[in-house]
Amino acid sequence: MVDGLRTTFTNKQHSVTISRELPTVMIGERINPTGRKKVLAAFQAGDFEIVKTDARAQVEAGARVLDVNAGVPGGDEVDLLPKVVQQVLSVVDIPLCIDTANPDALEAVLKIYEGKPLINSVNGEEKSLDTVLPLAKEYGAAVIGLCMDDNGIPASPEGRLAVAEKIIQRTTRLGIAIEDIVIDPLAMSLGADTKAGRVTLGATKLIAEEFGVNMTLGASNISFGLPDRKMLNAGFLILAIQAGVTCPITNPLVSEIRTAILSADLALGRDDYAARWIKNYRSAKKA
Length: 287
Ligand code: THG
Hints:
Blueprint: E1 7-10, E2 15-18, E3 27-31, H1 37-44, H2 49-60, E4 65-68, H3 77-89, E5 96-99, H4 103-112, E6 118-123, H5 126-139, E7 142-146, H6 157-173, E8 181-184, H7 196-211, E9 214-215, H8 229-243, E10 249-250, H9 255-267, H10 275-286
Parallel strand pairs: 3-4, 3-10, 4-5, 5-6, 6-7, 7-8, 8-9
Antiparallel strand pairs: 1-2
Helix pairs in contact: 3-4, 4-5, 6-7, 7-8, 8-9
The structure holds (6S)-5,6,7,8-tetrahydrofolate.
């Protein structure tokens, strides 16, 4: 078992450090047009008010990093993503997670971003490693590594560990610190495969124990197609944090999710004097 590593992201003003010794960091998922018709329509019309509202609300609810995705089908991401990033940074002052599969859009953002963002993401495919990692190195960014490669998403925890190892090797070989790699074991819909969670949680545990790296996952993915998504996401998050996830991408506006994360942190000894737990209870009671 390797000691937990510390990863720090920054923007112009603030830094956020992620570590297994510290409370879980929520990465807000909501600035993402996928599956949100309203956001999609607004982006297409050049209206970014919803982005600003979502950014503010997520930070007020406790998100410490925001995921920013502007992947509109048929949209020009190279033009759109930097605009969305600027709109977000005009209202909140926290580090961002740049969520794009388009290397040109990624570079357009890295050029204007002041500080050290989190790139979302590289994966084990040769093409991805060859394009994304040099950008992370050049711009001094941290990077999420997805546990999939040219053969797809491994069906076993050991297979995902092997992809994580490959990404870590390739990244550190370029001179990027292992602290700057955040591994995503890939969370998938339990509606499509009820054994998917077991594989994700098993991979999380193996990777955290072997490398000590910080870990993320898209917690809301697991409940696609199922009822009562909030409770399911909350329950899964507790298990994921226990297994080793330190910075989940999630919806901070859902109180069940916030409470679940706080309970996991308290149970795992990351909430001294239960201060955060009690503070959340008091503010929920007031509201
Ligand atoms: N890993 C990494 N990045 C990711 C994912 C991942 N980025 C995208 C995604 N997966 C995580 N983000 C979301 C965002 C929203 C939802 C799920 C995952 C979601 N949205 C509701 C829906 O589609 O039904 C809509 C919410 C609303 O309208 O308010 O579920 O796995 N590295």
